[in-house]
Amino acid sequence: LQGIIQAYKSGITLQGNTTSLGRWDYSGSFFFSISAITTIGYGNLSPSTAVGRIFCIVFALFGIPLNLVLLNEIGHLMLLGVQHCARRLEEVFHWQNKASFLMKTCALVTGLLLFLLLPPLLFSDKEGWSYEEGFYYSFITLSTIGFGDYVIGMNPDRTYPSWYKNVISLWILFGMAWLALVIKFCINILE
């Protein structure tokens, strides 16, 4: 039993009569990197050697600030897109304040769909979670709370497609940028 526990901690998961090193493969490593630099830190996967821990510290020291710059740029591009669409609506339909309000509402609804309401359907299919569990995972992840009670790709009874963790990693980056804009908008309203 102790050998099985040690094997699991080193990244080996049992799948039927074979074993898989799926946790530290490319997509697993990419997902780990994203969860580290976004400071989500689910706690399900961590470096187990001194060299790995030191590398993780150096990686995070540079990766976290660079990620903040990236998220800021993604959010800025999203905002520019919304503003550009609002200007086009103003020009075409001669709407003044209505165009800006309409575009902000569309951006909010689109973001809600793409980042909070539709992903739980994917998680229900791939993870076997209920919609509520997938929605909970979506919010806990994008808000960087990352409790670790739900983490994608960790069920040894399921087979995950190779694209799955990579797509979720990109969803995390764009979703965090969108949620940061929503939170900033809420702060502006409250002030």
Structure summary:
The chain is mainly alpha-helical and 191 residues long. Helix content is 70%, strand content 3%. The chain has one domain: Orthogonal Bundle (Helix Hairpins).
Give Rg in angstroms: 20 Å
Examine the secondary-structure arrangement and name the CATH architecture: Orthogonal Bundle
Q: Note the beta-strand portion.
A: under 5%
Question: Fraction of residues in helices?
Answer: 55-70%
* Widest sheet: strand ordering: 1-2
End-to-end separation in angstroms reads: 57 Å
Q: State mean pLDDT (0 to 100 scale).
A: 87
User: Major β-sheet, in short?
Assistant: 2 strands, antiparallel
What do you see in this structure?
There is one protein chain. By secondary structure, this protein is mainly alpha-helical. It has a single domain, classed as Helix Hairpins. It is 70% helix and 3% strand. The protein contains seven helices and two strands. The protein has helices spanning 2-9, 26-37, 50-93, 97-117, 119-127, 131-142, 164-190; strands spanning 13-15, 18-20. It has a two-stranded antiparallel sheet with strand order 1-2. Strand 1 (13-15) and strand 2 form a beta hairpin. It is elongated. It is a multi-pass membrane protein. InterPro entries: 2pore_dom_K_chnl (IPR003280), K_chnl_dom (IPR013099). Residues 20-78, 113-190 form the Potassium channel domain. One of its GO terms (biological process) is stabilization of membrane potential. GO terms for molecular function: outward rectifier potassium channel activity; potassium ion leak channel activity.
